[in-house]
Automatic annotation (TrEMBL), chain A:
Superkingdom of origin organism: Bacteria
Species assigned in the record: Streptomyces xanthochromogenes
Annotated Pfam families: HATPase_c (PF02518)
Domain Histidine kinase/HSP90-like ATPase residue range list: 39-133
SUPFAM superfamilies attached to this UniProt entry: ATPase domain of HSP90 chaperone/DNA topoisomerase II/histidine kinase
Designated name of the protein: Anti-sigma regulatory factor
CDD domains per record: HATPase_RsbT-like (cd16934)
């Protein structure tokens, strides 16, 4: 049973200030969800990576954040959506060290390792949506 | 001349029922601001704008960007800036202008001959309203830019920890602009103090993601090119775990959990030994 969302907030990410705001919003949610300090930090870092991807590679987009409840456990689910060029080769994009920009090439693959659930949905030419979830212990 | 006729009609109207219209206008605006600005204050602002508006109209112009409206625009600029600095929304700011349209509507649409005057006046107020919003957003942008500048300056001190050892305590977000400032200040301090050891403390950086890590690495490399050694301190447990999960490799850069550890390490490398002696009683 997937419980209904309790709060859902949509944040526009169109400038670097949007990335900072995304981190702050996720921190508040992670604290509400009573995630441990390590899990909070991991989730915020993943959110920071994905928000920056949305901005740099997707040309701006949105972050939808909500608290979810499922099988008596609580978590934070974040969805990053953009209408950018999409990802042509998902396996390549998820390879450590590969980057299409000037970064370290660890953002996408690294954030996958930082969270519990990671769903990448992309269509070349239409955009990319990455949905991640971190569950409380 | 059409303009002349229109402005004459408007002056007749505005000055004829001046008191009533002004009061009604102030009422509408005060209401829309939810009592956050005193009624007397609103009335004073609007009365000035009202007088300037009538004066501009008697010059025979109905174009908001005309020279005749210079005074009106100056007053609107002041009003708009004040609202922006007090944290009102663009709507709450522009409504001060648009409310006058609503107030005048009943008196102008009644007779046929006034339709033209009303349309011209509506266009004039639209122009002035847009002008108000423009000033508003410009003020907000200035405000944000000034704050960003201030933060940049405030948050990047370089301190001398010991002879030959400087410290750079970082607090907050480390983006490209701040990295530039930090790097510049640190490299300059290395020269000025003749130091060969630098400690970058990231205890106050809440999130270390790949961008922050990349900036840190660049800063360390820059220091090395100048012959200095860099230590990164303030790696808390949660940050260490996150860095490992992300897969960031700090290579041969020395990292420490506390500033004290980093200082001890830097001193040892620079050949300074610190030894413990018996505490001195009553040193004062």
């Amino acid at each position: 049973m997937t419980g209904p969302s309790r709060t859902s907030e949509v944040l526009e990410i169109t400038t670097t200030a949007g990335v900072v705001q995304a981190r702050q919003q996720v921190r508040v949610l992670a604290q509400q969800c009573r995630l441990s300090l390590v899990d909070q930090t991991k989730l915020i870092t993943a959110a920071s990576e994905l928000a920056r991807n949305t901005l740099v590679h997707g040309g701006g987009g949105t972050m939808t954040a909500l608290l979810v409840e499922e099988r008596a456990r609580r978590g934070v689910r974040l969805s990053f959506a953009d209408h950018g060029p999409g990802i042509a080769d998902v396996d390549l994009a998820l390879t450590d060290g590969w980057t299409s920009g000037t970064g370290m090439g660890l953002g996408l693959s690294g954030s996958k390792r930082l969270v519990d659930d990671f769903v990448l949905d992309t269509t070349p030419g239409e955009g990319t949506t990455v949905t991640i979830t971190k569950w409380g212990r | 001349m059409a303009d002349k006729h229109v402005s004459e009609r408007l002056i007749a109207l505005l000055s004829g029922r001046g008191e009533d219209l002004g009061a009604e206008w102030a009422e509408k605006v005060t209401g829309s601001l939810g009592g956050r600005v005193a009624r007397a204050e609103v009335e004073r602002e609007l009365r000035e704008i009202y007088a300037a508006l009538v004066a501009a109209l008697s010059d025979g112009s109905v174009d908001g960007y005309d020279e005749a409206f210079g005074e009106v625009r100056a007053l609107l600029t002041e009003l708009s800036r004040n609202r922006a600095l007090q944290g009102f929304t663009p709507t709450e700011t522009a409504v001060s202008v648009f409310a006058l349209k609503q107030v005048l509507e009943p008196s102008l649409v009644g007779e046929d001959s006034d339709a033209d005057a009303y349309l011209r006046f509506a266009a004039l107020l639209d122009t002035l309203g847009l002008f108000t919003i423009e000033v508003y957003s410009r003020t907000r942008e200035e405000l944000i830019a000034a704050q960003a500048e201030q933060l940049l300056e405030l948050s990047t001190p370089v301190v001398k920890l010991w002879e030959g050892v400087i410290g750079v305590p970082l607090v907050g977000t480390l983006d490209s602009a701040r990295t530039m400032v930090v790097m510049e200040k640190m490299l300059q301090a290395l020269i000025d103090t003749g130091s060969e050891q630098a400690i970058i403390d990231i205890t106050g950086v809440p999130t270390v993601d790949t961008e922050v890590a990349q900036h840190l690495l660049k800063t360390v490399v820059a220091a090395r090119l100048m012959g200095a050694e860099c230590t990164i301190s303030g790696i808390r447990p949660q940050i260490a775990q996150t860095i490992v999960a992300l897969g960031i490799d700090f290579g041969d850069i020395v990292t420490k959990s506390t500033l004290a550890d980093a200082l001890r390490h830097a001193l040892r490398r620079s050949g300074t030994t610190v030894s413990r002696t018996a505490p001195q009683a009553g040193a004062r």
